[in-house]
Amino acid sequence: MSPLSTVPFSVLDRSHVREGGNGPRALRDTVDLARRIEALGYHRFWVAEHHGVPGIAGSAPTVLAAAVAAATSTIRVGTGGVMLPNHQPLVVAEQFGVLESLFPGRIDMGLGRSVGFTDGIRAALGRDKRDADDFAGQLAELLGYFTGDQGAHPRVHARPAEGLRVPAFVLATGKGARVAAGAGLPLVVAPVRGEDAMLRAIEEYRAAFRPSGWGERPHVVVSGTVAVAATTEEARALLLPEAWATAYSRTRGDFPPLASVATVRETVMTERERALFEEAARGRLYGTADEVAAGLDKLLARTGADEFLVTTSTYDREALLDSYRRLAALLVPGAGTR
Question: What is the pTM of this model?
């Protein structure tokens, strides 16, 4: 049996700003996309956390998750993720306790260990790079507020989180795989440093996994970019806006709004920009429905993934939605016509 017929697929949207648009429009686009993704039958819809990034509006993921959950009715809603070193665990527990109380049985708590991207942002957050070093301790404190095991703060109770159970996921950045395994939590992993590195992280996670009250067995969510279109070239074109934004950010220090495919193709790049651009476009899964189905089958078989989280971004919102429709039709026949 093909893994495509058994593995749930979900969507992470980063609330990218598009050229000619702005932050408020990007956030409304995310909420609108969530409604459409729900109608297509996807399993989860997650939002992300970025601070001070010109091209990304999603700075408050729990607030945005509340808006998404209110605009939908059945799809699971969560974060991919809240960067725990940026926050006090008590506050994070309270926020997810409120979300779970308002939308019971639909909230996911995806957690990462990154800390503010620049020195200025870290200073504004009251954090520094060392705050990411105790991610395991921060995670244990956060989970304790739900179970009633407050550890270092025995007299502190997170209301209304205590007694609730919000599924928690750990993003595999840095030592994330090891931390997820030790806490008995699901792992979200992407081929950021290549597929071999991703496979090693998955193997390490499964080997070190310790069952807990949060999970009895390893659970791997593989994430990645997937673009589906009528032709291979049309699908590849969907990748160009984000690839250029990535190359731009690595040479100028700012992730810009997404430009149109035509603008990217007309851009005169330096040799270094061209190399970074081509690198950013590699490792993505794109093509016609048949090509993507074959690629996904191989990837899911190699990783043994329990879920797949699609993280595709592009300038043309309708082309993006068409890609999600075509992908949904591969997963559930007829879904792409909803």
Answer: 0.93
